Amino acid sequence: MDTKVPSSTPYKVQSFTDLHAWKEAHQIVVDLYGVTKDFPKSEISSLAQELRDSSLAISNAIAKGYEQRMYKEKIQQFSYAVTSLTKLRNELYLAHDLSYVADEQFNQLLERTHTVQKMLLSFMKKAKEFNLRRTEPTVQ
Questions:
Q1: Higher pLDDT, 139 or 108
Q2: CB-based contacts of 91: which residues, under 8 Å, 6+ apart?
């Protein structure tokens, strides 16, 4: 899935699916479903399911956050996504240490989680700045 948009291209977000953070998070879900299908059968209903659920929680929270109109609720959803990224990384480390996830897959997934987190933190900072500007009293 190509998630890069040239910086010179005018870009208007019309849906959560237009968000780069969601696209990256969605790709994590797709990648993890592929990786976990090869887990031992004894792990399919435990660690594999945890990885799938955690990754899906991230993209779901981004989508829900996009739809929120109130600043507080938007930030709450994006904060939940960041927390879920941390949980997912913890589970990835375990899966890697148990040799269920190859080094290359592990490194790619880990890097992608950091990319999504940076995007979300940047967005949250900008949203906070915007909200502060919006709520400042005007001087007449």
A1: 108
A2: 47, 50, 51, 54
Is the pLDDT at 51 greater than 80? The verdict is yes
Per residue in 17-32, pLDDT (tens digit) is: 999 999 999 999 999 9
Cα angle for residues 29, 16, 25 (degrees, 5° grid): 20
Nearest residue to 84 (alpha-carbon basis) of 117, 43, 107: 117
**Rounded CA separation 122/99 (Å):** 34
Distance between CA 76 and CA 127 in Å, rounded? 12
Residue 93 is encoded by which pair of tokens? 């480390």
DSSP 138: P
Q: How far apart are CA 135 and CA 91, in angstroms?
A: 40
